[in-house]
Fold N5-carboxyaminoimidazole ribonucleotide synthase.
Amino acid sequence: MNFPLPPNATIGIVGGGQLGRMSAMAAARLGYRCHIFTPEPDAPASQVASLTTLADYDDNAALIRFAESVDVITFEFENVSAEGLDLLAERRPVRPGPDILRISQDRIAEKTFLNAAGVRTAPWAPVESIAQLQAAIATIGLPAVLKTTRLGYDGKGQALIRTAGEAEMAFALLNPKPLILEGFVDFACECSVIVARGADGASTAFDTVENRHRDHILDLTLAPAPFDPDLRHEAQAMALRVADHLALVGLMAVEFFIDRDGRILANEIAPRPHNSGHWTIDACPASQFELHIRAVAGLALPQAVRHSDAVMKNLVGPSDIALWPQIVASQGLIPHHYGKTAAREGRKLGHVNTLFPHGALPGAFGIAAALGVLAAGEP
Ligand SMILES: Nc1ncnc2c1ncn2[C@@H]1O[C@H](COP(=O)(O)OP(=O)(O)O)[C@@H](O)[C@H]1O
Ligand SMILES: [Mg+2]
């Protein structure tokens, strides 16, 4: 089938989580059907899609059948094997392309790419042995963060090394090897930018947002980030440059640290919709999910503008989701539930957006007041 995909074409989405769910909802509004590939029965995305292939990510026969039943393939889950990616890409257009997924799957490839694109990161070094770790500590210094290169998320697969004595234990605990050592960034804040880019090279970036984490899981996103607009624009320009260097077709998030000297350091890239973009569903004419689907389907990309400022609060684990009845009864809290039936500790179960007039994002007290029943301990 040719691009742009016409209504009723089928978009294959690899992964069945909430990012797939919200992408499928955006796709439905544009008249597309979604076919979800997931190993999880009753996955959040399957609940809102017309078809699901229920199979493991390494089930090559299932991947082939899936590819042959869709018009284009995209991802909400990045960790498909290289072989699986090839099987998909031989059969249908994969957007973003397999090369981009391979870079984002591996922290060493990712940091190498970012630096080559002229984007600053924390100092880093690959670590395959204790001797290499000692050498890396000697150059990078302490504290430093040792991470697995693959399959990390929500801070899993990382250890902070504060003193030389902690190095050996951290090395032993983290698997599989190789690892990567990164200098610890004593950041003033964390922020991110979401970029969409079409096959014609046209791109657009949402405003830079600030992300605050709790227990290594995203807790709050403030849109726009409440700091110097010049810094916000610089982060946007860096994210757009990264998208161009990758020849991205699709949507991508770039996570950054702002250090104490006001310098921007890239942390990681995610070639898919991102938790820090969930505010765009309610605060923008076209959300990150709509831009994702538009880029994948070859439709024109509207500008990634917002009509409102916003705060997004994640609902994580049983204690947050227990507030659901009060949340849906609250004026001004815009609720999003992911349809997950098991409310495990640390699991992202939904989020809430609150909107403010453009340019009127309040300070801490105003945000706490707007979050109402969710404000305990915030921001
Ligand atoms: N080099 C670093 N210096 C300081 N904090 C870090 C560093 N790397 C990671 N972190 C903290 O841990 C969080 C998760 O790390 P990240 O590299 O984004 O992995 P993932 O999101 O894949 O779990 C970051 O958002 C940040 O809060
Ligand atoms: Mg991260």
